[in-house]
Predict the structure.
Amino acid sequence: MKKYLIASSTAYVEILGKRDFFIKKNFNFINKKKYLTLKKLRKIKPKYIFFPHWRHKIDSSIYVNYQCIGFHSTPLPYGRGGSPIQNMIARGFKKTKICAIKITEKIDEGPIFIKRNMSLNGSGEQIMLRMNNIILKMIKFYVKKLPKEKKQTGMATYFKRRNHKQSKISFGKRVDQIYDHIRMLDIQGYPRAFIEQEKYKIIFKNPVKTGNTIKCLSIIEKKEIS
């Protein structure tokens, strides 16, 4: 029986592992870099390895010996690099594409197997759930038949991975821009939007915008003394 492997750095792996489809189709799951080794892969012998939300560099010995498929949430070659969802929203985009790509030496530069449209409306968590459902359908498609790969075309642009300091809210922006800033960072495990006072940091989540008003859940933390 053919075997498959999903490697993910998030709780996404745990969610997938509970789905009947993946149990029936003999999927294996890895959620830590230390487990992604040639020794382990030789035991599993996966036909394909899928990398949704994988945060680590993949060793060349793995993608040379196995068919490795990654997922990127921009219309490649536009937006190669880190924090794709946040960078797209910050630039005013209302929709994006999820690209299933072949893992190669250069990050996000491999040929594309499938592209699917995706709305960027809603909270960060809603966007993540939407993206995960699209990726699920892509994986199911792969199990039936490997799509033909197509070389990326057009001018390449690159995003930088956002850092913690960039999560600070700038009140020189419009209300809709502040709302976008809060919602795009409202994802589990991501540095959420915040402001700082002399001794405290106020973190914002669950934003709701009505007209020119934004209502949020706020969390007040005492700042660490450096």
In short: The domain at 3-159 is CATH 3.40.50.170 (Rossmann fold).
